[in-house]
UniProtKB/TrEMBL annotation:
Methylates ribosomal protein L11. Keywords: Cytoplasm, Methyltransferase, Ribonucleoprotein, Ribosomal protein, S-adenosyl-L-methionine, Transferase. It comes from the Bacteria. It is found in: Cytoplasm. One of its GO terms (biological process) is methylation. It catalyses: L-lysyl-[protein] + 3 S-adenosyl-L-methionine = N(6),N(6),N(6)-trimethyl-L-lysyl-[protein] + 3 S-adenosyl-L-homocysteine + 3 H(+). This is Ribosomal protein L11 methyltransferase.
Amino acid sequence: MAWLSLKLPADADQAEAWSDALMAAGALSVSIEDRDAGTEAEQPQFGEPGLDEPKSWQRNWVEALLPAEADVPGLLAEAARAAKLALPADYQVEQIEEQDWVRLTQSQFEPIRISHRLWIVPSWHQAPDPQAISIELDPGLAFGTGSHPTTRLCLRWLEQAIRGGESVLDYGCGSGILAIAAAKLGAGRVVGVDIDPQAVTASRDNAERNKIEAMFCLADELPKLPDSLSPNPPPEGEGAIAEPKAIYDILVANILTNPLRALLPLLAARVRCGGRIALSGILEAQADEILAAYASAFDMRLWATEEGWVCLEGVKRC
């Protein structure tokens, strides 16, 4: 069985309408993606607590999966009428052939060597080096399999940063790979946080599979900060009791440049005096901007680069 993939551009005020209309017209599934993802124009992902963010990206791709026999022009015309939108002139259609998707997916994911003592190993492979630290991880709904340069950079940073017993916060945990690695490398209290409930679920499942202890939660479920450290302190008389568990020795955030810029006050407040931060998801051309922004709270430097991406590190000033 084959399918058709339909892809069309949509501005922020049109994306949801197109999505609903395409589903009503017979699409099997629809997704909305940022057209500027991976560029300097990318936008923060919506849902970060305490931030006034847009409900949608300004420039989107609306992607629909259709039956192979679908009348694409007719389906588009029907969706346009329902949504009261003009027909797009530059939509794209691609045929997707039937395949053994399980075998095809597995063939694309081999064990990944991160360093001489750290590997990422899919469940259908044996660990290549029994003496190394192996993280069992399969591709899934959440970002982070070790195949992307930013993930590898963060893993190598954690390997050299963790000496044993540190508290670690993985902000934007995705699959939980960085939190799991931190625990296996000897960290003490490990917490992973994400705005996506599916990522939290995937992280918990992966942690259980790897037999490590870590807490994973949504961003608004983190222990509250002491009032003196909170970027948005509550009115007098409504403050939370100071909780040491709210502050961490190490914070790692592998997200994207714009969210990192917006999250600076929140992330800085989660790192103890003298604690360390690692930031990735940043293109080389964007490094100076993030270094300058985080220099307000950290002594920052470029730690490493790989394939056009960077990992930045900093020490929290007292």
